[in-house]
């Protein structure tokens, strides 16, 4: 996602595989007549992700009681480095969270092309920030802001369902699922090049639409005579 993009605060450390130390060298190189210039950047902000393990979902019933469900989940460690510069008057991480039906903090939306969108997606559950368990939005906001101010980075422990969270949380009747599976199987048999067409009536005549240069005006009678208005049900 960061390939081919430069952001405010990034350091230009080289150009065309040559180290540069000042702006004069950069300007002199950019003045040369060439189609492409290869810049080496040191990122001021980035996101790094590491897959810890694949396990099953655990639900905290009581302080010392956990319930294990058959739902498989992935655990990820994410490190986000953020160093806002004076030029960045407003810094937006691009992360929006909500409480799910188990009162856990869940990613609701990430702004496209934002720092949060690199490794986070809707449905991910935020378990920890900087090794501290998180249970509210205010705790999340405080720990992220405090860590950015003190060290310029923060870490997240993410629990990500392996299944499609949006699709699997929609409860459908068994007959609907069966019909959908049969339709999907028929489409697979038709191959990738098949494009479904809307049904047509037999012996249906083709209608051609032509545009005319001159205009035709039709007066609205109700604008002249209010008695021509038709009664409308539930009109106020």
Automatic annotation (TrEMBL):
<dbReference type="InterPro" id="IPR036034">
    <property type="entry name" value="PDZ_sf"/>
</dbReference>
<feature type="region of interest" description="Disordered">
    <location>
        <begin position="194"/>
        <end position="236"/>
    </location>
</feature>
<feature type="compositionally biased region" description="Basic and acidic residues">
    <location>
        <begin position="210"/>
        <end position="228"/>
    </location>
</feature>
<dbReference type="InterPro" id="IPR040264">
    <property type="entry name" value="T15H9.4-like"/>
</dbReference>
<protein>
    <recommendedName>
        <fullName>PDZ domain-containing protein</fullName>
    </recommendedName>
</protein>
């Amino acid at each position: 996602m960061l390939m081919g993009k430069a952001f405010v605060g990034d350091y230009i450390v080289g150009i065309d595989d040559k180290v540069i130390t000042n702006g004069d060298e950069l300007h002199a190189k950019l003045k040369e007549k060439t189609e492409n210039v290869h810049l080496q950047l040191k990122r001021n902000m980035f996101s790094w992700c590491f897959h810890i393990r694949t396990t099953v979902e655990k639900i905290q019933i009581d302080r010392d009681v956990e319930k294990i469900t058959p739902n498989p989940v992935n655990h990820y460690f994410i490190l986000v480095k953020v160093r806002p510069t004076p030029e960045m008057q407003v810094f937006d991480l691009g992360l929006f969270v909500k409480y799910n039906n188990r009162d856990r903090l869940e990613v609701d939306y990430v702004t496209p092309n934002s720092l949060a969108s690199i490794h986070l997606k809707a449905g991910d559950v935020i378990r920890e920030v900087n090794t501290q368990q998180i249970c509210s939005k205010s705790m999340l906001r405080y720990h992220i802001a405090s860590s950015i101010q003190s060290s310029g980075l923060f870490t997240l422990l993410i629990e990500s369902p392996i299944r499609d969270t949006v699709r699997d949380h929609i409860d459908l009747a068994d007959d609907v699922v069966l019909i959908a599976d049969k339709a999907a199987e028929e489409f697979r048999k038709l191959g990738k090049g098949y494009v479904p067409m809307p049904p047509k009536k037999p012996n249906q005549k083709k209608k051609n639409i032509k545009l005319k240069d001159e205009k035709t005006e039709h007066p609205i009678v109700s604008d002249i005579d209010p008695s021509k208005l038709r009664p409308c049900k539930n009109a106020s």
